[in-house]
Model the fold of this input.
Amino acid sequence: MAENTHNFYIPKTNLIGVGAIKDLPEALMPLKLRKVLIVTDKNMISLGYVDNIEKILKALFIAHDIFDGVLHSNPTVSFVEDGLAYFPFKLNVLAKDYDFIISIGGGTNHDCAKAIATVATNSGSIGDYEGWKKVTKPALPLVCINTTGCGSEVTMFSIITDNSRKVKMLIGSPFMMPSISVNDPMFMASMPNELTAGVGFDVIAQCIESYICTEASPITDALALHGINLATQYLPRAYENGNDLEAREKMMYASAMTGMALNNAGLGYVHSMAHQLGGFYNEYHGNYDAILLPFVLEYNAVSISDERMIKIAAAMNIKTDNKSEALDKIIASLLKMRYDFKMPTGLSQMGVKEKDMDQMSQNALKDITALLNPRHGTVEDIKGLFKAAM
Ligand SMILES: [Fe+2]
Done:
């Protein structure tokens, strides 16, 4: 049989479930840490989440500083540089500033923290590491306390916007894998319902893309299918009532599973295209996914086996043994959810302009997530998908 490896990477420790935060001291204690930089945003401070972690650090006699400069949901090179300003002695081992980083927030904050942790030990600037496996030294150890749910807390990828090129850079390396992830739904209860909907659609899109991409393996298949099942069942409840901790907990499991699936399988054109939209317009990523997913799924259908399409439908509790019926019903179900959640239905409503489509389509095909899409398209194909989604 031809060589065909599927290595599997996840954080060493993953604390998951209602009350999981109480196990953080036990996970930190053996590391004998001295000083930590917390990477977060002002909203996390006002919600009291940062205070919560500060108390844990104090009890463990770990000193800390707070960088709260993650200003919006598409982290830029300048956020990373602002965080690195806390490391005046970087690369001077004797004068090491921080032993590790704790990121508190959603994927945005985790991505920014991963980038800071990477440059803190590798030097240079984050743009030097764009692509896959360009990082040569282990990043500073990272703990991700997750408050939304899109999987970044368990991935070795960071997405950072380079405003000068209007490109979302994807940086990935096993050296960037967080050491500890914490998924405690208590930190999600205050998430507003528009964000719950967007994050939920991101989870669903990521699960579907990692299930149909060319690097899927039996392990990632299991994670992706169960993630689809949990997210499509519990997202409506989490949207209706943010304090429904059972629904929040199930969404957190779906988030962790989608992160593990995409981290080890990959994604596809929904993300290659959504990354460009984020680079140009700076709206919330999950809303782009929600608009693009039905179109990209239909486009990809010729390259998806009958069995896989039917299994996606089955994971959404749609019973059929016919591929085209499965596709129709999957799309109908996604559109219904999007309608029920009052989400935008077209890219034009989100400020997307036709004049930017040439550039975005070319960039989308260069995005590394495009390489694993089940169907290989042209720039014209991508442009057609952007137009259809307007
Ligand atoms: Fe995503």
